[in-house]
Amino acid sequence: MIVVFVLSFRGPGVLRATKSNSIVINPRQKGNPVIKNIRNVAWEFGDVIPDYVLGKTSCALFLSLRYHHLHSDYIQDRLQQLGHSYMLRILLVQVDVADPHHSLKELAKMCILADCTLILAWSAEEAGKYLETYKAYESKPADLIKEKTDKDYLSKATDFLTTIRSVNKTDVSTLVTTFRSIEGIIKASKEDLALCPGFGPQKAKRVYDALHQPFLRSKKPKPAQES
């Protein structure tokens, strides 16, 4: 298991190696408004190469686009200095200029070459939220942020059939009760579908067409040219 130890200040002139449960911030970030917006996790200054150490294997560099326009070589030098010391390397960019498109395209290419994740924030508050969220979820399992889905048959059928326009959960329950399964619904005729409570010819046609039309439209043959 990889453990990160940092050098942090514990009194005047005293340095001590500690295992950090905080976001560890490079002293060069002092005065950055982003720090004031890290409110929900602990943080401390430490002798680290990245701007923010977010966990055992993750870190972030911070860049203001306004600063980038004045010092275009700065971030390239920082990325080279950082190297591949961490598995997850984030470039957190605060978009604070009127026309950011050219600069963002340039930074995106730079991140691809450096195998770095690019994240954009439009305010110091948003940037702080990203940093504290990475730290808060450091030890959480990946499935914690996955969409929660029900596994029973009716829920799956509802997810599938409600993609058809005007079909709601009540309609799905009616269809499954009447025809017993998705297979039974597919085999039903338009007339059978129209007889279901809450259905009429129009809704029945929508359901029937959605279940029977091919996924790919066939190309119409070109009319033969007269010789």
Describe the model.
The protein has ten helices and eight strands. The protein is of the alpha/beta class and 227 residues long. Helix 4 links the parallel strand 7 (88-94) and strand 8 (117-121). The radius of gyration is 28 Å and the shape is elongated.
Largest sheet: 6 strands, mixed
* Oligomer kind: single chain
Element-level helix/strand string: EEEHEEEHHEHEHHHHHH
Globally, the shape reads: elongated
Calculate Rg over CA atoms: 28 Å
How many H/I helical runs? 10
**Beta strand count:** 8
Task: Give the helix level as a range of percent.
Answer: 25-40%
Question: Gap between N and C termini, in Å?
Answer: 78 Å
What do the pLDDT scores average to?
84
Beta-strand content estimate: 15-25%
Order of strands across the biggest sheet? 4-3-5-6-7-8
List segments where confidence is low: pLDDT < 50 over at least 5 consecutive residues.
1-19
Global structural class: alpha/beta
Short description:
This protein has 227 residues and is an alpha/beta fold. The protein contains ten helices and eight strands.
Can you lay out the helices and strands and say which pair or pack?
Layout: E1 5-9, E2 15-19, E3 23-25, H1 33-36, E4 43-45, E5 52-53, E6 58-64, H2 65-70, H3 74-82, E7 88-94, H4 101-114, E8 117-121, H5 124-136, H6 153-161, H7 169-179, H8 182-187, H9 190-194, H10 201-212
Parallel strand pairs: 3-4, 6-7, 7-8
Antiparallel strand pairs: 1-2, 3-5, 5-6
Features:
single chain; 227 residues; two-stranded antiparallel ribbon
